[in-house]
Amino acid sequence: MVLIYSNDKKLNMEMLSKGRELADELGKKVTVAVIGKSDTDPEEYIKQGADKVFVADTDLESFKVEEYTEILAGIIEKTGVETILISSDKDGKELAPRLASMMDTGCVTECTDVYIEDGNVTAERIIYSGNAVAVERFIKKPHILTVPAKLFDPLEVDDSRSGEIINEKVAYDESPSKILKVQQMECEGVNVEDATSIVSCGRGFKNKEDIKLAEELAKLLPGETIGCSRPLSADLKWMTEDHWIGLSGHKVKPKIYIAIGISGQIQHIAGMRDSDIIVAINKDPEALIFKSADYGVVGDLYEVLPKLVDTIKAKIS
User: Fold this and answer.
1) Cis upstream peptide for 176 (omega within 30°)
2) Which secondary-structure segment (H or E) carries 280?
3) Class of 2-169 in CATH
4) Where are the alpha helices (H) located in the chain, listed in sequence order?
5) Distance between CA 217 and CA 213 in Å, rounded?
């Protein structure tokens, strides 16, 4: 049996898609674990692929890794699941290794793919800063894996599906640690992870002021979202980390991604390669970005961008 867990409904739906695929191949069932208070109706998970939803009734007001680890371990024992997919977000990154240690088993983090090979659960993950892909298998059960956001597309809603909803208390020991304060990180109102279109800037821009050329293009697209590669955020500080797209930044999956003046190092590609359509603009015809692009323009961005903006404006009018 496959178990899915995240505090985030959207991430649960994404992992449920892969969980359904694994379960069907193994001839098993899929269970979604819900811990604490949730705004999601358990029936929604069943309509999108789950066979069971295990709702752990607790008095916890918010996520606390010590208690949640014990509760999830209790759910695993009660359900007898063998493969556990946990979201690779802030909470999941705390939870998964603790759970693996408690259950004396392995944990594969940041999986880019999970599949069955020779009857075994097999995972792939990017290593060495994006220069290689590790293929890993488990030698004992249960299998614990963390999955990044936007890796899998949720299944279509099927109102005809039926399943089992289990509401049950799961015992846990209260931890002596206390959460004193939770403060939302301040940002510029940018959410590149949810953007439908992104215009992304790279080291090809000579000055910070020149980014306005990309902003003008972004204004013609839904969302008006600007992204950037690592040098512009981490090194030059021209843009905040909210805009940083890549292996160490944000992973995005827009309908269209326009990479301007970006060379295309694997660290950046890892953050945007799942975009529906990738357009690259670079004056170097040998730039790596063109290998990942659906459409490429070889030219100086300072000449290409104004012409592109004028053309789009003419089409719109």
Assistant:
1) no
2) strand 277-282
3) alpha beta
4) 9-26, 42-47, 65-79, 90-102, 211-218, 230, 266-272, 289-292, 301-316
5) 7
Q: How far apart are CA 207 and CA 184, in angstroms?
A: 31
Distance CA 306, CA 243 (A): 22
**Are 289 and 257 spatial neighbours (Cβ–Cβ below 8 Å)?**
no
What does the pLDDT look like over 20-40, one tens digit per residue? 999 999 899 999 999 977 778
Cα distance between residue 218 and residue 200, in whole Å: 9
Tell me the three state secondary structure of residue 135.
strand
Does residue 132 have a pLDDT over 90? no
First to last CA, the chain: 56
Q: Is the pLDDT confidence value at 149 over 90?
A: no
Average pLDDT (242-259) is 91
What pLDDT is attached to residue 185?
Answer: 65
Superfamily of domain 192-316: TPP-binding domain (3.40.50.1220)
Interval 83-120: pLDDT, tens: 999 999 989 999 999 999 999 999 999 998 999 998 88
Q: Does residue 189 carry a pLDDT above 60? A: no
Give the pLDDT confidence of 269-280 residue by residue, as tens digits.
988 988 999 999
Residue 46 has pLDDT above 90, yes or no: yes
Kindly report, as residue ranges, where domains of CATH 3.40.50.1220 are found in the chain. 192-316
DSSP letters of 29-89?
-EEEEEES--SS-HHHHHHTT-SEEEEEE---SS--HHHHHHHHHHHHHHHT-SEEEEE-S
Closest CA to 10 of 36, 48, 43: 48
Contacts of residue 165, Cβ cutoff 8 Å, sequence gap at least 6: 42, 43, 46, 52, 53, 55
* Residue 132 phi, psi dihedral angles, 5° rounding: -155, 160
CB 237 within 8 A of CB 113: no
Rounded Cα distance between 114 and 145, Å, is: 9
Q: Report, in angstroms and rounded to the nearest whole number, the Rg of the chain calculated over CA atoms.
A: 22
